[in-house]
Amino acid sequence: MRRGAIRPRSPSEMLEPSRPPGPPRGAVAPNAPRRGSGFMRFLSGLFTVVLVVMLAAGSVMALLYHQFETSGPLAVSRVVTVPRGEGRIEIATRLEREGAISNRWAFIINYMLRSALGPKPLELKAGDYEIKKNASMAEIMETLTQGRGVLSKITIPEGLTSLQIVEKLRGEDELVGDITEIPAEGTLLPDTYRYSKGMERRELLERMQGEMQRFLAAAWERRQPSLPITTPEQAIIFASIVEKETGRADERGRVAAVFMNRLKKGMRLQSDPTVIYGIVGGQGTLGRSITRADLDQKSSHNTYQIGGLPPTPICNPGRPAIEASLNPPMTTDLYFVADGTGGHTFSDTLKEHNAAVNVWRKVERDRKKDQPADAADTPDAVPVPLATQAAAPRVLNAKGTAPAVGSGASVPLPVRKPKQ
């Protein structure tokens, strides 16, 4: 044992560990609170919060930038009209509603940032704009801020066949590229389409198909629940017949009601335009008036010979014909015949119908008496094309009277009892 050491008072005390010496006088204990440590903890917490916020903001900005630069949702090119007076939120909402962008807020935030950080504020300009297929938000914003509006337009009338529409597009010099395949009948929506010079014809056709799909889907949801047609495809077939039967807006719904009533009763439609389509197909124009032999000719589209609807549409119907077909007025009409003034007389009984037929035949006889003897040699006496025949005098029969076909018929057809 060292000299000066404290002797243990007992053997047990000898076995206990020795206690460390106390801190020197004036020293601070290790676990004692230090001056200013609360402020440092506050700064440390504040820095952590700021770092988390910055990381979150950076992640959001990266996501918004990715959405802004990535390809857009449009499957086909389309034209979006921005009216005058709309603000950036209304324009972004319109673009989202039209399917051009997927998130209007991403568009708005990027627009505001670029407007604030750029050399001068950006302005979204009113106009008609062609939004390209899969165009990104960045491309759309550049188009709208630079005012790159559409330069050209083409009007596709209601009632044309797909082949006739393709031929019309081929005649547009500002369009490029050829069309190698004729779209299915009834898949193109007639309308006025705007396009930029150098656009592919095929791309414009795809736009027409997309517009038909969009409109038909919306119209089908608004249809009357008790219709005797069960699919959108049948609706287009039916609407194409209505489209070719009349060109008058005030009669379109009533014509649709006649055909709906006949379908419900299991009666044949006996529509002249279906006979013509069965003969010429997508060509559309017969070039003469139809004859008894045409009515007796068996084809997949001749609704004098087949029951129900033909297998395909006979043209591309417009919006009004589709709407009228899916929401016809409630009537009991089963027949209609031209009244000699450009309209039709509708009847719900065969007796009334036969009387209306006699009136029409008298009008036709009087018209022929007033016609010059050499009218057939004049340039005006040419075969009536299909689009004109659709609105020309015609008779829709069911049981006891044959139709008096188009305006070019030379003699009234004899009355017969058609096959049921």
UniProtKB/TrEMBL annotation:
Residues with site note (Important for catalytic activity): 245
Localization per record: Cell inner membrane
GO CC field: plasma membrane
Pfam families: YceG
Low complexity composition bias: residue spans: 373-385
Annotated protein name in UniProt: Endolytic murein transglycosylase
GO molecular function, one term: lytic endotransglycosylase activity
Sequence ranges of Basic and acidic residues compositional bias: 363-372
Transmembrane segments annotated in the record for this chain: 42-65
Cross-referenced HAMAP family: MltG (MF_02065)
Membrane protein topology class: Single-pass membrane protein
EC number: 4.2.2.29
Keyword Transmembrane helix appears in the UniProt entry: yes
Major subcellular location class: membrane
